[in-house]
């Protein structure tokens, strides 16, 4: 059956109308679904976003120290000129103390102290040619390179201020010449940094003099600083050097004339403690609290060679505190020092020097 032209025209017109009607329906359906989704998004309750805590302490001090005084004080106080103008400075004049300086800066880096870090050492250590190095110099140079690479320590070789024969003098008073900094802290070796927040706080203290020492009690009651706080300037350096004996720039004289920081309020943690002072503690002493609340432990026991040496057990009998808690704290500090010396420097304890045979035989011959 053949279709007439009218029927064909009707079929085409119907197809076009149907197609446009379907497209219109489809577009309306899409618009309807978009409108429904928009209404659902508006009606649905939004979650409450809690703003994160202020990152100020975390940025400058790593984990917040947890002591209420420092939480409040350090949140609103900064050193004069900012953290780029204050520095921890270790003056190492003996190879024995290079590792201790590295250990101190390792803790400062781990706890994210923002103060600058400087090691001053004799320039002559750089003068030796490779292949002909003394083993001690080779070890010291390795440790100094590690300090610069791992802990962002600035290395500053220095010339002796006085040289008589083979004896060179590098006085601690020379730190007053570091005028690039508004404030510097020197930690008298040997010792352990346990908490940097208390030491960082010292950079913010007002200073009426150019020098300030912080001391801890000892068995003999001596008040020699274990932490030295200095305000460098050209005038302070010149006047201090001129006032010291030019024969040897006596360091004991320099430290003895230094004013000591008065006792801190009770809500502050201990800045410094000496291991020799643990013998003075009574039964109320708590070893855990001591280790958690002390910034710097100066390991000073006059009867021993120092924490770097593997002293015979019998020689420590008169040094170790008798009471249980002070004894535990003393042993913990020395054990931490031994472990850190190996972990940070790759060094075991030094063997204790043997007594001189001639002197020993003479002492044995005496009645």
Explain what the structure shows:
The protein has 367 residues and is α/β, with parallel strands linked by helices. It is built from eleven helices and 13 strands. It has helices spanning 5-43, 56-61, 68-76, 98-110, 135-151, 196-202, 234-243, 251-256, 287-293, 324-345, 357-365; strands at residues 86-91, 116-122, 154-158, 162-164, 167-169, 183-187, 191-193, 211-214, 227-230, 270-274, 294-298, 309-310, 350-351. The chain has a six-stranded mixed sheet with strand order 3-2-1-6-9-8, covered by helices on one side. Strands 7-11-10 form a three-stranded mixed sheet, with helices on both faces. The protein has a two-stranded antiparallel ribbon with strand order 4-5. Helix 4 packs parallel to helix 5, helix 4 packs across helix 10 (324-345) and helix 9 (287-293) crosses helix 10. It starts with a helix and ends with a helix. Mean pLDDT is 79; it is low at 46-72 and 357-367.
């Amino acid at each position: 059956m053949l279709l007439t032209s009218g029927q064909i025209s009707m079929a085409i017109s119907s197809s076009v109308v149907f197609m446009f009607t379907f497209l219109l329906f489809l577009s309306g359906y899409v618009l309807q679904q978009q409108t429904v989704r928009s209404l659902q998004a508006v009606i649905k309750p939004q979650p409450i976003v809690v703003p994160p805590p202020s990152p100020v302490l975390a940025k400058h001090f790593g984990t917040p120290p947890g002591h209420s005084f420092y939480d409040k004080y350090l949140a609103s106080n900064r050193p004069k000129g900012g953290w780029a103008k204050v520095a921890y400075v270790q003056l190492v004049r003996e190879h024995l103390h290079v590792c201790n300086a590295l250990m101190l800066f390792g803790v400062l880096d781990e706890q994210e102290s923002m103060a600058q870090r400087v090691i001053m050492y004799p320039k002559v250590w750089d003068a030796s040619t490779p292949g002909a190095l003394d083993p001690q110099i080779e070890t010291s140079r390795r440790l100094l390179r590690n300090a610069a690479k791992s802990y962002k320590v600035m290395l500053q070789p220095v010339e002796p201020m006085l040289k008589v024969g083979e004896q060179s003098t590098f006085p601690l008073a020379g730190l007053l010449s570091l005028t690039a900094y508004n404030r510097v802290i020197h930690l008298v070796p040997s010792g352990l940094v346990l908490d940097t927040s208390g030491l960082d706080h010292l950079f913010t203290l007002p200073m009426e003099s150019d020098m300030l020492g912080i001391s801890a009690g000892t068995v003999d009651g001596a008040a020699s600083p274990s932490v030295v706080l200095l305000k460098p300037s050209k005038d302070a350096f010149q006047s201090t050097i001129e006032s010291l004996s030019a024969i040897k720039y006596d360091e004991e004289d320099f430290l003895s004339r230094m004013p000591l920081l008065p006792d801190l309020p009770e809500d502050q943690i201990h800045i410094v403690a000496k291991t020799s002072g643990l013998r003075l503690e009574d039964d109320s002493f708590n070893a855990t609290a001591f280790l958690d609340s002390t910034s710097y432990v100066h390991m000073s026991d006059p009867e021993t060679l120092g924490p770097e040496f593997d002293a015979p057990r019998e020689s420590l009998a008169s040094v170790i505190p008798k009471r249980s808690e002070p004894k535990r704290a003393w042993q913990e500090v020395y054990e931490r020092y031994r472990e850190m010396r190996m972990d940070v420097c790759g060094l075991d304890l030094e063997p204790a020097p043997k007594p001189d045979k001639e002197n020993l035989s003479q002492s044995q011959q005496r009645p």
